[in-house]
Amino acid sequence: MKELIEGSMAVARAVKVCRPHVISAYPITPQTHIVENLSQFVADGELKAEFVNVESEFGAASVVLGASATGARTFSCTTSQGLFLMLEVLFNIAGLRLPILMVVANRAVSAPINIWCDHQDAVTARDSGWIQLWAEDNQEVHDMCLQAYKIGETPEVSLPVMVNFDGFILTHAFEPIDLIEQKDADEFLPPYKPVQYLTTKNPLTFGVLADPDWYTETRYRLELALNDALPVIDQVADEFKKKFGRYSGGLLEEYRLEDAETAVVSMGSVVGTIKDVVDELRDEGKKVGVLKIRTFRPFPKEAIFQALKDVKNVVVIEKDISLGFGGMLSNEIKTAFYGRPKQPKISGFIAGLGGRDIPQQSIRRTIEKGISEEIDIGWVDLREDIIGGKLL
Asked: ∠ CA(34), CA(38), CA(39), 5° rounding?
């Protein structure tokens, strides 16, 4: 069933057919429409779930942690500063191996205050132990919600999943969405049956004190679980395609990379604009392709190497920065080639911070710059200070 709806509603409709037992979130723009729609579904009796109002994002994360530990399927959503207020609990959720789904409407972080889209929020949380999936459009984020539950609830994975989509650019955009029907969702996503959970019938202790003799082993097991998730992510995407006829998950997406000499790497909604630029460059006879990162954690190094090993130039365009280090994605792309005999020229560019537009002309200039020379960290469309002409 195809319907023209807002991106936030596409998320709410997907979560609804996943039949969560407990939902808790705190309103913060641009995420608010998601939780508004879900609360309305619960109030109208369309979704049988416990909707818990809380005083903060920290409280919301704590509620779904506790509910998941008792064996419930849970959902939350947030953005930007709200995600950071949750950060302490995010580490606890991953450490407890709780397969919670959280959708993040990506937004810049303060200071200065900015409510528009970039990827600084979720990318900063990359080390918390959560699987991270990134959507290019609202159809992908709708589809990824079902896949995220199935991935996270796979027993050998048993990890929380964060599905990311761009604030305002996607959350408030109306697109025709092929909505998943309840019957099909039930066939694809079975009821959650946790292996271990809190119950008086079989008392357990979660989150015990781990002294130095045992803490390292917990981190080791968490790392193994993330690595074990890599084939599961691809497997679930294949199952979804078989059921629904579209591939909207997995680790990566290759676009016109077959004979490419230059590959542009990015994630999120900007990939759509990059594809348009690449089509124009192809029409001009230039061998350029796109590699879209759908899974940022666990980082699919081997898959990235296989996709890019035959290109001469890699141009990474990303909407985040590790201050004092450079682009997080570009530097991690470089690790995929560490110690390999074949290494392309890899250039990293920072673009779109705080919601600044990334027009096609800027993308074209960035690609040309990455082809002509190797750039460690380039800034796209950086403004100049009128007084003194210094770059800001």
From this structure: 115
Confidence of residue 53 (pLDDT cuts 50, 70, 90): very high
Half-sphere exposure of 236 (CA within 13 A, CB side): 26
Describe the crossing of helices 215-244 and 87-95 by its angle, rounded to 10 degrees: 90
Distance separating alpha carbons of residues 140 and 100, to the nearest angstrom: 19
Q: Is 291 helix (H, G, I), strand (E, B) or coil?
A: strand
- Cβ-based neighbours of 255, under 8 Å, separated by 6 or more: 275, 278, 289, 290, 291, 292
N- to C-terminal Cα distance for the chain?
49
pTM (global) more than 0.70: yes
Percent of the chain with pLDDT over 90: 94
Strand ranges in 147-261 using DSSP code E only, listed in sequence order: 161-166, 174-178, 252-255
Positions of E strands within 100-243 = 101-106, 131-134, 161-166, 174-178
Phi and psi at residue 110, to the nearest 5°: -85, 165
Read off the pLDDT of residues 87-99 as tens digits, 9 standing for 90 and up.
999 999 999 999 9
Tell me the domains of the chain and their CATH numbers: 2-244 (3.40.50.970), 252-379 (3.40.50.920)
Please tell me the distance from the alpha carbon of residue 335 to that of residue 351, in angstroms, as a whole number.
21
Reported as type and span, the H/E element at residue 184 is helix 182-188
Per-residue pLDDT tens over the stretch 214-243: 999 999 999 999 999 999 999 999 999 999
